[in-house]
Design goal:
The chain is mostly helical. The protein is built from 10 helices and no strands. Helix 6 packs antiparallel against helix 8. 6% of the residues are buried. The N terminus is likely disordered.
C-alpha cells in the first residue's frame, strides 16, 4: 500500500508540474502575441522612467504655448532696464542696419550693371570702388549682429539657469523629484540641454522674425507707392493663408520633436543612473540587465 501511495504522490507531483509548465508556456505565448513579433536574437525589456501613460502630451503653437513662453520670458528678461533689454535693442538695430545694407547693395549692384551695359568705364570703376569701400561697414554690421545674438543667448541662459537652480535646490526639491515624485523626470536633461536649446530657439526666433517683417514692410510700402495697394494686399493674404496651412501641417512634427527630446532625456538618465549606481550593479552582477535596459532605451529612441 505504501509503495502505491508513494507512486500516486509522485504521479500527482508530476501532473502538477506539467500543468504549471503548460500554464507558463500559455502565458508566454499570449504575452508574445500581445507585444508583437520582435527581432530575432533580441530580448524585449520594458522600463518606466517618469512616464505617465494616462496623460497624452501635445505640442501646438496655441494660446497655452504663448502663455508658457510669456512666463519664461518674464524670468529671462526681468525688466526694461536690464542687460537683456539692451541686447534686444542691439539686435534690433543691427537687423535694421542689415536691411539698409541689403537695400544699398541691391541698388549699387543695379547701378554697376547699368554702367556695364552703357559701356561707361569711368562710372563703372567709380561705383565699383563704392562697393568695395562699403564692404568693411557691412562686415562690421554682420559681426555686431552675430555678437548681439550670441550675447543675448548667453544672458537668457544665465537668467533662466539661475532661477531654475534656485527652485531645484530649495529645501528637498531635488530629492523629491528624484525619489518621491515622478511627474518631472530627467532633471539633468531639463536643466542643461533643454535650457540651452530653449534660449537658442527664442533668440533665433526673435532675429528670424524681426528682419523679414521689416523687409515685408519696406517691400509693401514701395509696391503700394508704385502700383497701388491691391497687389500687396493679395500677396499678404496669400502669405497668411499659406502660413496657417503650413502651421497645421507642422503639428505632427512638433509632437515628434517633443517625443524625441523626451526619449533623449530618458536615454541620458539611464546612463547617468548606471554611473551613479555602478558599485551596486557590480556587487549584484547586474551588468547584463543594465545592458538590456540601455539597449531597449536606445532602440526606443
Amino acid at each position: 500500500m505504501a509503495p502505491n501511495m508513494s507512486k500516486f504522490a509522485q504521479n500527482n507531483k508530476t501532473l502538477v508540474g506539467a500543468a504549471a509548465v503548460s500554464m507558463l508556456l500559455l502565458l508566454l505565448r499570449r504575452s508574445r502575441k500581445q507585444s508583437g513579433p520582435g527581432k530575432p536574437g533580441t530580448q524585449e525589456v520594458q522600463y518606466l522612467v517618469g512616464e505617465n501613460p494616462g496623460r497624452k502630451e501635445t505640442a501646438h503653437v496655441d494660446r497655452e504655448f504663448f502663455r508658457q513662453l510669456k512666463q519664461l520670458l518674464r524670468i529671462s528678461i526681468p525688466g526694461v532696464f536690464c542687460p537683456e533689454t539692451g541686447y534686444l535693442l542691439l539686435v534690433a538695430a543691427s537687423l535694421v542696419a542689415r536691411s539698409l545694407c541689403d537695400l544699398w547693395m541691391i541698388q549699387n549692384g543695379t547701378l554697376i550693371e547699368s554702367a556695364v551695359i552703357g559701356m561707361d568705364r569711368t562710372l563703372f570703376w567709380k561705383r565699383l570702388f563704392k562697393f568695395f569701400a562699403a564692404m568693411p561697414v557691412i562686415s562690421m554690421v554682420n559681426n555686431v549682429l552675430k555678437y548681439g545674438i550670441g550675447a543675448l543667448k548667453l544672458r537668457l541662459r544665465i537668467r533662466l539657469t539661475q532661477n531654475l537652480y534656485d527652485q531645484y535646490l530649495c529645501g528637498f526639491t531635488y530629492y523629491k523629484m528624484s525619489n518621491l515624485d515622478t511627474r518631472i523626470a530627467n532633471a539633468d536633461q531639463l536643466l542643461t540641454t533643454d535650457v540651452e536649446k530653449f534660449c537658442d530657439s527664442v533668440t533665433d526666433l526673435y532675429s528670424n522674425v524681426l528682419k523679414p517683417l521689416l523687409d515685408i514692410l519696406i517691400y509693401v510700402y514701395r509696391l503700394t507707392a508704385n502700383i497701388g495697394a491691391q497687389t500687396p494686399f493679395l500677396m499678404i493674404l496669400y502669405l497668411l493663408a499659406s502660413g496657417v496651412f503650413l502651421t497645421h501641417l507642422r503639428r505632427p512634427t512638433g509632437r515628434m520633436t517633443m517625443k524625441e527630446q523626451k526619449l533623449e532625456g530618458e536615454f541620458r538618465h539611464i546612463n547617468s543612473r548606471l554611473i551613479a549606481n555602478a558599485e551596486e550593479v557590480a556587487f549584484y552582477q547586474g551588468n547584463r540587465r543594465e545592458k538590456l535596459t540601455l539597449l531597449a532605451s536606445f532602440q526606443k529612441l
